[in-house]
Amino acid sequence: MAKQWVYAFGEHEFDKDLLGGKGANLGEMTKIGLPVPPGFTITTEACRHCIKEGKPPADLDSQVMQKLAEVEKKTNKKFGDAANPLLFSVRSGAKFSMPGMMDTVLNIGLNDATAAGLAKKSGNERFAFDSYRRLVQMFGDVVLGVEHKKFEAVLDSYKKGRKDTDLTVNELKQIVREYKELVKKETKKPFPDEPAEQLKLAINAVFESWNTPRANVYRKLNNIPDDLGTAVNVQAMVFGNRGANSGTGVAFTRNPATGAKEHYGEYLVDAQGEDVVAGIRTPKPVDEMKKDLPAAYAELLEVYDKLEKHYKEMQDFEFTIEGGKLYMLQTRTGKRTAQAAVKIAVDMVKEALIDKETAVMRVEPNSINQLLHEQLDPTAELKVIAKGLAASPGAAVGRIVFNAEDAQEWAAKGEKVILARNETSPEDIAGMAVAKGILTARGGMTSHAAVVARGMGKCCVAGCNAVRVDEKTKKMFVGDREFEEGAWISLDGDTGRVIQGQVKTVPPALSGDFGVFMQWADSFRRLRVRANADTPVDAKRARDFGAEGIGLCRTEHMFFGEDRLPWMQKMILAKDAEGRREALGHLLEMQREDFKGLFKAMDGLPVTIRLLDPPLHEFLPSHEELLVEITKLKATKGSAALLREKEVLLKRVEELKEINPMLGNRGCRLGITLPDVTRMQVRAIIEAAIECEANGVKVKPEIEVPLVSHVNELKFVKQIIDETAECVFKERGKRSAYKVGTMIELPRATLTADEIAEYAEFMSFGTNDLTQTTFGFSRDDAEGKFLHEYVEAKILDGDPFAVIDRGGVGKLIKMTVELGRKTKPKLEIGICGEQGGEPNSVEFCHIVGLDYVSCSPFRVPIARLAAAQAGIRHKKQ
Amino acid sequence: MAKQWVYAFGEHEFDKDLLGGKGANLGEMTKIGLPVPPGFTITTEACRHCIKEGKPPADLDSQVMQKLAEVEKKTNKKFGDAANPLLFSVRSGAKFSMPGMMDTVLNIGLNDATAAGLAKKSGNERFAFDSYRRLVQMFGDVVLGVEHKKFEAVLDSYKKGRKDTDLTVNELKQIVREYKELVKKETKKPFPDEPAEQLKLAINAVFESWNTPRANVYRKLNNIPDDLGTAVNVQAMVFGNRGANSGTGVAFTRNPATGAKEHYGEYLVDAQGEDVVAGIRTPKPVDEMKKDLPAAYAELLEVYDKLEKHYKEMQDFEFTIEGGKLYMLQTRTGKRTAQAAVKIAVDMVKEALIDKETAVMRVEPNSINQLLHEQLDPTAELKVIAKGLAASPGAAVGRIVFNAEDAQEWAAKGEKVILARNETSPEDIAGMAVAKGILTARGGMTSHAAVVARGMGKCCVAGCNAVRVDEKTKKMFVGDREFEEGAWISLDGDTGRVIQGQVKTVPPALSGDFGVFMQWADSFRRLRVRANADTPVDAKRARDFGAEGIGLCRTEHMFFGEDRLPWMQKMILAKDAEGRREALGHLLEMQREDFKGLFKAMDGLPVTIRLLDPPLHEFLPSHEELLVEITKLKATKGSAALLREKEVLLKRVEELKEINPMLGNRGCRLGITLPDVTRMQVRAIIEAAIECEANGVKVKPEIEVPLVSHVNELKFVKQIIDETAECVFKERGKRSAYKVGTMIELPRATLTADEIAEYAEFMSFGTNDLTQTTFGFSRDDAEGKFLHEYVEAKILDGDPFAVIDRGGVGKLIKMTVELGRKTKPKLEIGICGEQGGEPNSVEFCHIVGLDYVSCSPFRVPIARLAAAQAGIRHKKQ
User: Fold this and answer.
1) What is the ipTM of this complex?
2) Spatial CB neighbours of B824, under 8 Å, sequence gap ≥ 6
3) In whole angstroms, how far apart are CA A637 and each of A538, A648, A649, A787, B669?
4) Strand A315-322 versus strand A247-252 pairing type
5) Fewer CB within 10 Å, N side or C side of chain A?
6) Which 3-state string (H, E, C) describes B32-60?
7) What distance in Å separates the CA atoms of residue A666 and residue B511, rounded to the nearest whole number?
8) What is the structure's pLDDT at A739?
């Protein structure tokens, strides 16, 4: 049996792979009885044949002619018949919509004879020759490859400044003649007058357009396989430009901005699709059709209804009205805002169109980020001066300051401030805390500024290269613009835009639907979701967003506070054990209160506390600053006492200096070389737990040992932890439960997870460090230097610090879970890296069987939704 | 049946686990008919029982008494019999010799009655009471725990400056009495006079000594399990101190220093073992016994012969002569120098004592290092002033200089120099090249100085903390000593000793035996051995040492030369593509000549050339130096032109600066972001290959892409390589074969080795980087900071940068081999990290099926031997 290359609309079942998106939907609409002008789809298979063999299938022509005859029958017109001509549109339709491919040729079938016939039949000569003019121009450009601007030049020579509609019939006829001459001159062949040849050439042109360089590049960029091919849709023409009872429009079955179930759409009377797009005339809301075109309006209402009942999804469709009758030309799933997506999903469940599972799958997890933050007023006019990375969402409006002290000073006076820095460091934390938003000139999506801002739920635009901050003169430069301290700017953390002046903002849209929706989502997820939080304020916010515990409390953040840093520095600079003990005593007092606050905020929920992680030099002034100061003091014969003091400091900083601090004396290495710090932290945790429990707070502390590479490190630190806890229990005469576990963030830990599990009650992946060491990429260096080029050159699909690299890092994660659970089948395993709130990574965590993900508070709802979708997607496995 | 806890010498088969080393060998000697005084061994099992149950087995006593009766029968003496007393020695004997355990108690069985009997029977009252005096002192000290110095005080009060031998019989009797009073006073119990009780207490004391703190620490440090236990040897006493026809001695069956088959040993007439050890009298060479003690000498010659024939190994033994008759007290495998080990192994094969396989197993691979370098004259007296790490072997004598320029200047004048630095950097290479040896105050076994020195085969003592170098004033301080530039010092790279003054040296002892031995070794190895070499000189040396190719040529080392660095810097600082091209053009000329030299030196053998690896900032001045210079220029209003120049340089250095350069823009990342550098290097390689082939040199270049983490990186660079090669082929009108492969040095590469193998013709493990990333340890930071503490605290068994960490890094290596060969079954895989020349690591490479190891030239023979031993050890697998 010969292969069928051509299907009439509705003849084949819904199959985007075979019929393309457009063709499949035209068929679908035909089947449910919507008024689709008849036509047929040439399959992607025919295109693939064409790509492979270099020519269309031998029997394609005859199959096309057969289907064409069916259309003639349905329309009572004849292709090429001068008396009653049938005209066709030819449109491409791949599985994925794809710019760069040939789009549309209209009015196929016109020539001098059929144009005259159309004029006669329609009683509208101008319409007929305008259509003819359009055919020659479109066909000449798209199918025959004559430059568009050459046709425009001819047209302009007639219009002489007038509008298209001002052209007379004679002028149009003259233009058609000149167009044809142009085609002959350019292509060395006459314009094909034969309708069958026009059709054949147009179909081939669509096939060939699959391999244009632009289409190839687009496919490469979007990971679309080159061998999919496109379908071709050949459809009987209907005309919206045949007078006052004709028209054309675009509509959505619901409001794509708000989600409201209302008639959303616009139309133009006496116009073709391209006129709506061109935007020369202003379209009217569809409800006005009731008055203008009442019959078509009635049909439209039925379309709304049928489409939604059939697709069970909000549709975006195009229609044309010819002589008062409505025709459907296209439908597809409508794009919508996050707010609309949530509302539509919830409403459709209420309308019994879909079930909750389907509803939960309908909202892109990342999109709900928009719902959680203040936004720039979408109606405001923006003077965008630069664009950086959308590092932390939300909007911020304030006056620029250039350092943490100024930020605090201005904020204390009640000013809204934006902290602008070349890059931030831990010492900026206090300034970041009071700022409305943060702008940095350098650093990537996981730079200090970005990570801390996300943690604080604060808007941040990072790595904005166009910005140069001169921290000394307190000025910011963007191109040749100069901004003084105190100048107003606005930031859009969702897009990375930096805007001059004070833009109005709107509050987050956490409507009731959102709550309902998230509740449904929760019912489908297996993964628990915790938050990374270091302060009671963050912890509370996380809990409000649905966090089921703290998955990572980074205790070092507690030491950068104004009241802490001096003691931390004293501890590091202590000359002897006694000096160190004194400093640690002060830090103990403060840490204990920190933990009490956290425990209270998370009453009843687990709190994972990571012991001190960063290298000590992070708490001291920078080596280079000190060098410069000392050089200056020496060169200018400055204060000898100050010089001595700085030199002592420099010496200690030099001792602590590391060539690769990321791989240096940090994490548990610090806890092993300075066990007193570990003891202080554990004491603070246990004392806080006992004091909280005395006040009826339910406390579940999980003490986490960072950066373990060998089981013996964990064993060593666990012994210190257990000894310290026992010591406190004895002092207080009370016991309190706690767990000891470890971060898994080094390849060696993953490879020996079975050994490590012997001493760990829980494990949590630190995927930032694990990604760094698995790739051998320093996050800070890679993002500023070569990572961008890697993604551009398609060496990497994306930033592995944003999305878990399943092929490498993911293998280690999988291995860890298998090895760890071999030792302890019920071992609790989570993830607390940046990727813990990224949907693709959350899905991976679900697949490999983690117990929870932990992410910054503002990403908790995203992670909840992503976990639900993963649960639904993989429920059969 | 009751368990047998006690075996007469020779009753049980040779079993060190059960009888301990000493007991097993006493039994062995008894069995082969050597004159061993009769006795018995109490098993380690009895000791283990004792440790576990807290008391000796119930039937131990009766079994001891039974074996004791057999000894009485053999000796015709009776234990405790005043008329004809039998005396015993009690000695510990664990499987591994172990300081801290009770060693020996002699003369057990003496009391007032038996001492009198011994006096009478021997006709030597002084001997009897001296023995009695020794028993009380030894027993009191070792078994009863009375402090040694208290006995010495009593003894001294009699000696009054005289020698032991000057004491009269009456004085000795008086001393025995006073000793016993001392024991009673100290232990609140009388000295045990009953021989059976003495024996029982002594046996128990040996058991208990297993658990002394010192023994425990020793076991912990040497990884000896705590539950092995020790055996106890009870042996009839023989006396070397019974006059002129008695004596005692120690001998080796061959010369342990040279390996010569000769009578090596010393003896003392009329003395006991402890007298030989005490070193008060000077022993005589054993051959003099021929005259002094002819019968015993004849027996001794038989002993030499029997021992070697039986053990087929050089023995170190102790003997005693009593009344002209020779008795054997101990034998064990003799320790020897590397030179002796080789000679003995070769000779024993020639003597048909052992086969070649056994011979090859007899030499510790690391020890042959000594044979390859100049050594300090072993007879010289040394004034050791400090001790650092034995970073690169050999000896060096020269005058100290403190920077590379001075080193070159002094060397040019014909002076021998030692380059002393706080630490070295790539800019010191030229100075290191002309120095006789290198001394650094900081840095570990894999610091720059250590690695480069080993590569150059040059003596280096690194990380010598006691040394402080003031590079500015050109002085070196060691404690309160001060050394000016030009002062003579000597270095011992085998021990890390730094010696004041000019010590004589002796040349390497590469005797003929060594050649024969290495040839045998080669016949047993499967692993090939290549060398890491960057220059023709190194390549030639490596080839002389038996290298079968170059496994790693680090091209960056070529750019640090005086003629290269300026062009490299120009390339980096170039403002445009043209400037860069010009600089690259100059580098191309030089690189091509470099490669031609290498190819010629390795004619017929493969040469693996790694493309540029280090981050570019390594070629520029340090950021901090520039900062200080600029600050100074500004503060002192120095030259504006110079300031401008420095500021431009600083800007570029800042652009290139990285937070963690080890994980930054280096390796193939550099080759991808700066493809022109890759093109230049590949062009140099291919042009050199073609030019060499034209001159009849057989060239096998292997182009190696470093630091690949994702297959696409290799794919990308391989394309550049292939395109460049094709381009050169076309220009030259000639083709030449080359391979493209990659370093495997990042965990992600190991995890995706199957994908990478698609594009790699060979793989080579860079275990330095792989260890860094697997552990998350920066080599430089870890070795200076926490690694030492980790090894001390037994968190790690040893430095993973020295010996491959089989449990972690090793797993990745194994995975790589499996994955890589799944894609390409014959994929060639090697290793070129520091560990490639370390015997334990070489064994691992053999086990996992690598094709070759590559190491610094001077380690090539070590690797060859280690590979042979691995081949023999694992040949059944």
Assistant:
1) 0.83
2) B757
3) 49, 18, 19, 46, 46
4) antiparallel
5) N
6) CCCCCCCEEEECHHHHHHHHHHCCCCCCH
7) 50
8) 98
Buried b (16+ CB within 10 A) or exposed e, B17-50: ebbbbbbbbbbbbbeeebbbbbbbbbbbbbbbbb
- Radius of gyration of chain A measured on its C-alpha atoms: 34
Tell me, yes or no, if A553 is annotated catalytic. no
CA A619 to CA A612: how far, in whole Å?
Answer: 12
Cβ atoms A248, A267 nearer than 8 A: yes
The angle, 0 to 180 degrees and rounded to 10, between the axes of the packed helices B839-848 and B860-873 is 50
Please, what is the average pLDDT of chain A?
92
Q: Which of A624, A673, A772 sits opposite B663 (nearest CB)?
A: A772
Residue A406, both tokens: 């100024």
Is-contact B238 B327, C-beta < 8 A?
yes
Residue B678 to chain A, least CA–CA distance (Å): 16
For B282-292, the pLDDT digits (tens) are 788 999 999 99
Rounded Cα–Cα distance for residues B460 and B396 (Å): 8
* Closest by Cβ to A659, choosing from B624, B781, B795: B781
Classify A592 in phi/psi space as left (phi over 0), alpha (psi -120 to 50) or beta. Answer: alpha
* Nearest chain B alpha carbon to A776: B663
Residues of A with Cβ-Cβ distance to B673 under 8 angstroms: 785-786, 789
Which of B635, B661, B752 lies nearest to residue A807, judging by beta carbons?
A: B752
Sign of the alpha-carbon torsion through A515, A516, A519, A524? negative
Locate A842 and state its tokens: 């959350």
Residues of B in contact with A795 (CB under 8 A): 672, 710, 712-713, 716
B190 burial type by CB count under 10 A (0-12 exposed, 13-18 middle, 19+ buried): exposed
Cross-strand bridge partners of residue B104: B91
d(CA A410, CA B146): 78
Pair of tokens at residue A465: 């290269």
Structure tokens at A48: 């693939």
List beta partners, residue B852: B528, B830
- Which of A47, A668, A832, A845 is flagged as catalytic? A832
- Going from the C-alpha of B259 to that of each of A473, B252, B343, B545, the distances in angstroms are 79, 10, 5, 23
A166 φ, ψ (degrees, to nearest 5): -85, -10
Sign of CA dihedral B840, B845, B847, B851: negative
Report the predicted TM-score, pTM, of the whole model to 2 decimal places: 0.84
A308 contact partners, CB below 8 Å, separation of at least 6? A253, A314, A315, A353
Is A709 in contact with B774 (Cβ distance < 8 A)? Answer: yes
Q: Report the C-alpha gap between A269 and B352 in whole angstroms.
A: 112
| Amino acid letter, residue B794 | K
Q: Which of B527, B363, B545 is nearest to B871 (CA)?
A: B527
Residue from B692, B832, B845, B855 carrying the catalytic annotation: B832
| Amino acid in the structure at residue A629 | E
A846 in active site: no
Per-residue pLDDT, B276: 66
| Chunked mean pLDDT (size 10), chain B, 877 residues | 91 95 96 97 95 91 96 96 95 84 89 95 92 94 92 92 86 96 96 96 92 83 85 96 90 88 90 69 87 94 96 95 95 87 96 97 89 82 90 90 93 94 86 93 79 79 90 90 94 91 82 89 97 93 94 90 89 89 94 96 98 92 90 90 91 89 94 94 98 97 98 97 98 97 98 98 97 94 86 89 96 98 97 91 97 94 97 82
For residue B479, the model assigns a pLDDT of 86
Distance CA B263, CA B290 (A): 12
User: Could you tell me if A63 and A5 are in contact, meaning their C-beta atoms sit under 8 angstroms apart?
Assistant: yes
* Chain B contact set for A747 (CB, 8 A): 747, 773-774, 776, 808, 812
